[in-house]
TrEMBL record:
One of its GO terms (molecular function) is DNA-binding transcription factor activity. InterPro entries: DNA-bd_HTH_TetR-type_CS, Homeodomain-like_sf, HTH-type_TetR-like_transc_reg, HTH_TetR, Tet_transcr_reg_TetR-rel_C_sf, TetR_C. The keyword Ion transport does not apply. Residues 18-78 form the HTH tetR-type domain. It comes from the Bacteria. This is TetR/AcrR family transcriptional regulator. Keywords: DNA-binding, Transcription, Transcription regulation. SUPFAM superfamilies: Homeodomain-like, Tetracyclin repressor-like, C-terminal domain. Residues 41-60 bind DNA.
Amino acid sequence: MEQPSRSAGTVRPGGRTARVRASVLDATQDELVEHGFHGLTMDQVAARAGVGKTTVYRRWGSTAGLVADLMTELANQSSPHADTGGIEGDLRANALSVLGALTDGRLGATFQAVIAAATCDEEAAQALRTFYSRRIGEWAHVVDLAVKRGELPEGTDGTEVIRAVSAPLYYRLVVTREPVTREAAERSAARALAAAKAGAFVIPGDDA
């Protein structure tokens, strides 16, 4: 996964519906950052966005619906995977993008709020799964390209390689509460690459 825009409300097509959605998602993100998922209310989002409560309830239905749409928008804003010409540079770019997202004051707080919500709310968990499935799937292509170039063994699972890059960073963020540093990001990318080259992420054949 790489870093989406800082705000969910930037660069959208015109029209009243688009403007309302932009305002509501910006307000949702602000409320998440300030109050967390369990402090998120439809009324406060509506007031912050300057939108009628009826509109918010009718379109999004619940706070989980707001979070799901916010995560969809953040995924839509994310850029395509890097293409540095080599798997080492691509995985490093992925790690640094994750680092940028997690250490951004607004975006990092958003992720932490949704991750916390996902532990006890299935709709929030589904929104989170959908977001990361899209982003991991996008970056898995760099592994497929590396296999075609002969940099990695045939059968290497790109999804698992990308997960291995970011997993230690998220562990620091939400489990041990340690600083997520550039050094940690680069080290994580290097270790994932070494494991991938050694065949650790090769999908076993049917006869394995």
